[in-house]
C-alpha cells in the first residue's frame, strides 16, 4: 500500500509540475507578446508583401507606442506599393502613417481585431487597362469569404483616391474622409465616356454599432448624361461583397450607363431604371426591375452568378410596349438612315447576331411583350420567347409572334461553336391574312407559310443573304381589286375599262422558293383569281432583296387588248419595279393586239388551277372558314 501511495503521489506531483510549466510558458508567451517589439518585423513584412504583390513594397518604419500591452498601438510610417510595370511609373499606394490598436491574442488563431484604424496622408492610384488588367490585383482568384476585418473605429484624413479605367473609358478623383462623428464620406469628380459626373458616397461611422450589424451606405454618381444612385445596407461595415440596395439610374443611352454597372449592355435610346439589388459574393439578385428605354418599358427580375471569368443569368422580362428601334442609339439610327439612302429600304433586319461578346455568358431569359411598337404600320403585334444561351449557341425556342391576324411560331438558332455565327430559322405562319402583310395592294385572303433557312453571317441580313433552304407561302379564299386581277392576266383592255371599286375573287396564291446560297428561285409562284391565272418565275437575291422575275398571265375570258409579251419585275421586295417592254406601249403594238382579237388569234384562255392539290403539295395548313365567293 505504501508503495502504491508513493507511486500515486509521484504521478500527481508530475502532473502538477507539467501544468505549472505549461502555465508558466503561457504566461511567458503572453508577456513576450505584450512587450513584442513589432518594429523588428518591418523587413519580413516588406518581403512578404513584395512576394504576394509581385513588386517591391517598402515600409519606412514601424513604431510601437505602449511598452507593455496585449492591445498595443502600432504606427506604420511611409508605406509605398509601386504600380506594376505595365501600368507605368508611380505608386499604386503611398501612406504617410497607418495607426492601429489591435488585440494580440486573436492573432494566435489567425483573426485580426482592431479597436481602431487610422489612415493619414494616403494616395491611391488605381489603373485598369484596355485588356482588363487591374493594378490592384495579382490576377489570382481570391476565394476567401472572410469579409473585411473587424474594426472598432475608422479614421481617415488627407486621403485621395484616383481611378483610371481604359476598358470602360471612365475615371475619377475623390477625397476620402472618415471619423467617429460623421462616418465615412467620399466626394469628387470624374468622367464616364467623356461625360462629366460628380461622385459622392457616405456610410455610418464604423465602430458606433457592433461589427456584426448592418451598415447603412449611400453612393451617388450624378451627371446630366448619366447617373446612378444606390442606397442600402451592407451586412457588416465595409463589406462590399454582401449588401442590399435600392438602385436608380439614368443614361443618355444604355451603353453609357453600362460604363458604370458593367453588364455588357448595348447603346440604346435614353434609359431610366430602378430596382432592388442583393449581392452575395458571386451572386447578384435583381428584383422589381422597372425601366424605360425610349418609348419602351421593361419590368422583371434576374439572378446573375459569376462563374470563373463568365456569368450565368436566369431572368424574366415583361414589357407592356416595346419598340426594337429603341435598341439603337441616335448614332445607330443615323447609320441606319445613311444605309437606307444608299441601299434603299430593306425587309430583312440588319440585327447583329455575333455571340463573341457573350462567349462567357450562359443562362435563360423568358421574354413577353404585350405590344410591339413600330415606326409605321406593321402586322407584328406581340412576342413571347425563351432565350437559352450557352456553349456558343443562342436558342430562341419557343418563339411566338402574334400578328394582327394569326401567329408566327417556331425557333431561331445562332450556332457559333465552329467559328462565325450560323443562323437557322424554322418558322411557321398560321391563321394570318394576306392584307395584313400588304395593306396597300387591297389583296386579301387566308395566309399560311413555312420558312426554313440556314446561313452564315454576323447579322441576320448577312446570314439570310447567304442562306439555303425553302420559303413557302399560301393564300386562299380572298379578294382583290378586279382591275388588279385582269392585269395579272395581261388583259390590258379590261384593265382599262374595269372600275376601281370592283372586286374579284382570289382563289389561291402558291409561292414556293428554293433558296441556294442566298438566291431564292421560284418553284414557281402561281396566282389564281376569278379573272386570270398568273405564273411568275425567276430569282430573288436575298443579300440585297433584288427581284429578277418574269410574269406571264392569261385571262379566263376573251380579251380585247391582250399583252402578248412577258412582264419583267425588278426593284426590291420593299420597292418593286414593273417593267413593261417598250414596244408593247406603241401605237403599232395596240393595233396588232386589236388585230389578233378580231382575228381570234389570241392565246388560249386560262384554265383554273387545282388550288386544293397545290396547297396540299406544299404541306401548309390553312385555318379559318372559307370566304364566300364574290359576286362580280
TrEMBL record:
It holds the Pfam family AsmA. Keywords: Membrane, Transmembrane, Transmembrane helix. Residues 25-138, 292-524 form the AsmA domain. It comes from Sandarakinorhabdus glacialis. The lineage of its organism: Bacteria, Pseudomonadati, Pseudomonadota, Alphaproteobacteria, Sphingomonadales. The keyword tRNA processing does not apply. GO terms for biological process: regulation of protein targeting to membrane. This is AsmA domain-containing protein. It comes from the Bacteria. The keyword ATP-binding does not apply. GO terms for cellular component: plasma membrane. The chain crosses the membrane at residues 12-38. InterPro entries: AsmA, AsmA-related.
Amino acid at each position: 500500500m505504501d508503495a502504491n501511495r508513493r507511486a500515486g503521489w509521484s504521478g500527481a506531483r508530475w502532473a502538477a509540475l507539467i501544468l505549472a510549466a505549461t502555465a508558466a510558458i503561457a504566461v511567458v508567451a503572453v508577456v513576450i507578446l505584450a512587450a513584442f517589439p513589432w518594429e523588428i518585423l518591418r523587413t519580413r513584412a516588406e518581403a512578404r508583401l513584395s512576394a504576394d504583390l509581385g513588386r517591391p513594397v517598402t515600409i519606412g518604419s514601424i513604431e510601437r507606442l505602449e511598452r507593455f500591452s496585449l492591445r498595443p498601438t502600432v504606427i506604420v510610417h511611409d508605406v509605398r506599393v509601386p504600380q506594376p510595370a505595365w501600368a507605368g511609373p508611380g505608386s499604386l499606394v503611398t501612406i504617410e502613417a497607418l495607426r492601429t490598436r489591435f488585440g494580440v491574442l486573436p492573432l494566435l488563431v489567425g483573426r485580426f481585431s482592431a479597436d481602431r484604424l487610422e489612415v493619414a496622408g494616403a494616395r491611391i492610384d488605381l489603373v485598369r487597362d484596355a485588356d482588363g488588367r487591374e493594378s490592384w490585383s495579382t490576377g489570382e482568384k481570391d476565394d476567401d469569404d472572410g469579409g473585411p476585418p473587424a474594426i472598432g473605429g475608422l479614421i481617415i484624413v488627407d486621403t485621395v483616391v484616383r481611378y483610371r479605367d481604359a476598358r470602360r473609358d471612365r475615371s475619377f478623383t475623390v477625397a476620402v474622409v472618415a471619423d467617429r462623428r460623421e462616418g465615412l464620406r467620399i466626394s469628387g469628380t470624374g468622367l464616364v465616356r467623356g461625360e462629366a459626373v460628380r461622385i459622392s458616397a457616405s456610410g455610418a461611422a464604423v465602430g458606433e454599432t457592433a461589427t456584426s450589424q448592418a451598415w447603412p451606405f449611400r453612393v451617388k454618381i450624378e451627371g446630366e448624361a448619366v447617373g446612378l444612385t444606390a442606397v442600402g445596407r451592407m451586412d457588416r461595415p465595409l463589406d462590399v461583397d454582401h449588401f442590399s440596395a435600392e438602385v436608380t439610374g439614368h443614361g443618355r443611352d444604355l451603353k453609357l450607363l453600362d460604363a458604370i454597372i458593367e453588364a455588357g449592355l448595348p447603346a440604346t435610346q435614353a434609359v431610366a431604371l430602378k430596382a432592388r439589388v442583393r449581392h452575395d459574393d458571386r451572386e447578384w439578385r435583381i428584383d422589381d426591375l422597372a425601366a424605360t428605354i425610349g418609348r419602351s418599358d421593361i419590368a422583371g427580375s434576374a439572378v446573375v452568378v459569376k462563374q470563373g471569368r463568365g456569368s450565368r443569368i436566369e431572368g424574366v422580362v415583361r414589357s407592356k410596349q416595346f419598340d426594337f428601334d429603341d435598341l439603337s442609339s441616335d448614332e445607330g439610327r443615323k447609320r441606319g438612315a445613311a444605309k437606307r439612302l444608299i441601299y434603299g429600304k430593306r425587309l430583312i433586319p440588319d440585327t447583329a447576331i455575333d455571340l463573341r461578346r457573350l462567349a462567357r455568358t450562359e443562362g435563360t431569359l423568358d421574354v413577353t411583350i404585350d405590344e410591339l411598337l413600330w415606326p409605321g404600320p406593321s402586322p407584328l403585334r406581340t412576342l413571347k420567347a425563351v432565350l437559352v444561351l450557352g456553349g456558343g449557341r443562342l436558342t430562341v425556342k419557343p418563339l411566338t409572334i402574334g400578328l394582327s391576324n394569326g401567329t408566327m411560331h417556331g425557333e431561331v438558332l445562332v450556332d457559333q461553336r465552329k467559328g462565325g455565327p450560323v443562323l437557322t430559322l424554322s418558322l411557321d405562319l398560321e391563321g394570318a391574312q394576306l392584307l395584313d402583310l400588304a395593306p396597300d395592294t387591297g389583296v386579301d385572303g387566308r395566309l399560311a407559310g413555312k420558312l426554313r433557312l440556314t446561313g452564315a453571317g454576323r447579322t441576320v441580313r448577312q446570314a439570310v443573304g447567304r442562306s439555303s433552304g425553302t420559303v413557302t407561302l399560301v393564300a386562299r379564299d380572298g379578294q382583290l381589286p378586279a382591275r388588279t386581277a385582269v392585269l395579272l392576266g395581261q388583259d390590258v383592255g379590261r384593265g382599262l375599262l374595269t372600275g376601281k371599286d370592283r372586286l374579284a375573287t382570289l382563289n389561291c396564291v402558291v409561292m414556293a422558293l428554293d433558296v441556294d446560297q442566298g438566291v431564292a428561285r421560284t418553284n414557281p409562284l402561281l396566282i389564281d383569281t376569278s379573272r386570270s391565272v398568273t405564273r411568275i418565275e425567276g430569282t430573288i437575291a436575298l443579300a440585297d432583296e433584288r427581284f429578277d422575275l418574269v410574269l406571264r398571265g392569261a385571262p379566263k375570258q376573251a380579251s380585247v387588248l391582250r399583252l402578248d409579251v412577258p412582264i419583267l419585275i425588278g426593284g426590291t421586295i420593299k420597292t418593286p419595279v414593273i417593267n413593261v417592254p417598250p414596244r408593247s406601249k406603241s401605237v403599232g403594238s395596240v393595233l396588232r393586239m386589236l388585230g389578233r382579237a378580231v382575228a381570234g388569234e389570241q392565246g388560249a384562255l386560262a384554265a383554273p388551277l387545282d388550288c386544293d392539290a397545290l396547297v396540299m403539295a406544299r404541306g401548309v395548313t390553312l385555318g379559318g372558314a372559307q370566304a364566300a365567293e364574290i359576286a362580280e
